[in-house]
Amino acid sequence: MAEIAALTDVRSAPHAERPAGRRHPLPGRQEPDRERAAAAVADLLRALGRDTTEVNLRETPRRVADAFIEMLTPREFALTTFPNDEGYDELVVVRDIPFHSLCEHHLLPFQGVAHIGYLPGERILGLSKLARTLEHFARNLQVQERLTRQTADWLQAQLAARGVGVVIEAEHMCMSLRGAQSSGSRTRTMTLLGAVKDDRRTREEFFTLCGLQA
Ligand SMILES: [Zn+2]
Q1: Which residue stretches belong to region Disordered (predicted)?
Q2: Distance 111 CA to ligand 1 centre (A)
């Protein structure tokens, strides 16, 4: 039967008594202060030489604060896993999962697609949960390498999988919009674990299922 293996950093945080719908901060992170964030955005605009009393900009600080709070607050989800009763032992891959995150160096978005796969061991999980796991880690100040690694490590730990592969291809606005202006160029990162890393046939199959060249 289904078991609920909750995301430990969300569900077992000491905020479980919060009313439903209220967002939970991650441990080590303070609850966002919307007022302060909006005031800081207004400060930033003034420092950039803009007049925040102008009618077009009056609501901007609040909107920006809300947008950042949303992008940095993971949605709760329960990682429901199931015993692998059928003994399924082939790769499970979901490819082209769209995502976005925020670069911790520039507070600008990076976005693209992820391909996530695992070789089941004792437990399997609902396919949509692969995307939700990625989203959980993406709603943070991130670098692409760490986002890739955290997603893979977490799935490996939760599923006791025989192997995990995560490939992320993303365009970084901080690269596209500034300096080199390399619009459209994508950065690819990957974390391969277990048999997806060590077994050549499994690794090649993973890349093929992701639509990538081995
Ligand atoms: Zn950046």
Answers
A1: 1-34
A2: 12
